[in-house]
Specification:
Pfam families: Metallophos. Helices cover 25% and strands 21% of the residues. It is of the alpha/beta class. The chain has a single domain (3-224), classed as 4-Layer Sandwich (Purple Acid Phosphatase, chain A, domain 2). The protein has a five-stranded mixed β-sheet, with helices on one face. Strands 4-5-8-10-9 form a five-stranded mixed β-sheet, with no helix packed on it.
């Protein structure tokens, strides 16, 4: 029986990822996918990035990978780079080889396996993943909350009236497995599953496992964070 294994935001938490993968013990026929934000914040981003490539683990792009890719693209121009990096991000950039950069630049916005769609942030009901503008791509990477008129809210601008996108999503783009917004426990919505459980913040790293892409009988497997960052 083939399994689809989807990992929440890892953020360089290499040790926890190895522990989680050992706990799951994937078979060679299983498909392993990350929801993005595999790097930054944690202490072993580059080591994790290389491990994922070596073991043929897939990933969609997260907003943190997107930032580094955009920074690298701007470096090709003879003007001051408009994207500023923190020390962690600078260290990652300095330790990437050509294969790492190629891998990051080729990360897709989403994967679709039958009715299961894997992406990083979220989407609105009018979005069609096969026909998106550049601005909509950016929103999908960063989606968290909507206002009462169903408009995207920039991070930090949400209030008590804001609505989390997955609570209004109608399922038209498939059953979404996402990360980006971390929760103490995996967030179950009718047509979506949020699996970022804040490992890099000291909580835990989680994965969801689907047998034969069956969204009715998935399993959640988690390991506790060792020491957060």
């Amino acid at each position: 029986m083939n399994q689809l294994i989807v990992y929440g935001d890892i953020h360089g938490c290499y040790d926890e990822f190895i522990s989680l993968r050992k706990k799951i013990n994937p078979d060679k026929s299983d498909i392993e996918v990350c929801v993005g934000d595999i790097i930054t914040k944690g202490k072993n981003s580059v080591k994790l990035l290389k491990y994922i490539q070596e073991h043929n683990i897939k990933s969609v792009i997260g907003n943190h990978e997107d930032k580094l890719v955009r920074y690298l693209e701007h470096e090709n121009f003879n003007i001051k780079n408009p994207i500023s990096l923190d020390e962690d991000e600078k260290n990652i950039i300095e330790n990437l080889d050509k294969q790492d950069i190629k891998f990051l630049k080729n990360l897709p916005l989403f994967f679709k396996y039958e009715n299961i769609t894997i992406l990083h942030g979220g989407l609105q009901n009018y979005h069609n993943l096969n026909n998106l503008t550049k601005k909509e791509n950016s929103k999908i990477l960063r989606m968290r909350y909507l206002d009462t008129y169903d408009n995207f809210i920039t991070y930090g601008k949400e209030n008590e009236d804001s609505i989390f996108w997955a609570d209004t999503y109608d399922g038209n783009q498939g059953f979404i497995v996402y990360g980006h917004q971390w929760f103490d426990e995996v967030k179950h919505s009718k047509f979506a599953l949020g699996i970022d459980t804040g490992c890099v913040y000291g909580n835990k790293l989680s994965a969801v496992i689907f047998d034969n892409y069956n969204i009715e009988t998935f399993k959640i497997i988690s390991v506790k964070a060792n020491n957060g960052k």
